[in-house]
Amino acid sequence: MISRNRTPSRYVYYGLHLYFSGLSLRKASERLSQMYKRNHVSIWNWIQKYRPQKLKASRRRILEYIVDETMLKVGSEYIWLWVAIEPANRQILALSISKERNMFVAERYLSNLIKVHGKHPVSTDDGGTWYPMACRFLNLDHHIHSSYEKSVIERTMQYIKDRTESFDDYFPCRIKNCKLKHVRNWLRLFVDYHNNEIKHVN
């Protein structure tokens, strides 16, 4: 995929995952070498060739956005993870993090979402007022999750949370006032991997 030495793509992804999770190049290569022998220079080369891209507009017709947020722990602090998926193919359309959860953050998140994918109805849970207010401001149709939509987003959120526990359990952030760049990079890599896996399954 990325490397010239024909390293299987799953090991390239795992090496990038380790680095983006906060390990040094040498520590990442040590972990990776427990399964597949590669030195820190190999991982450095993969990083140079990997460019986390903003999510592109889906080629499929989007019926609606299923949107939700959840709390994650990064080091000693908590952050909010915002996720939007498309119900038909279950691909992640947008993913963002913030240190606050309110109408202004929701409006900015939805605004960035429609810049990429256009205006579509928004489905959310009934737990907060920030989504209805943000949708009203952006002139978006808003409704509460159906039972199907709720099950789809809950499975997706749990899937993400299961795989982001490494932030706190294995790679705690010790940088004071961290800007969370490594978290954003890891999440972009995760979305790339997740959407490609969904695409192959479909």
Automatic annotation (TrEMBL):
Signal sequence residues: none
Superkingdom classification of source: Archaea
Domain named Integrase catalytic: residues: 48-202
GO biological process: DNA integration
Stored Pfam families: DDE_Tnp_IS240 (PF13610)
Protein's recorded name: Transposase
Organism of this sequence: Candidatus Nitrosocosmicus franklandianus
Lineage: Archaea, Nitrososphaerota, Nitrososphaeria, Nitrososphaerales, Nitrososphaeraceae
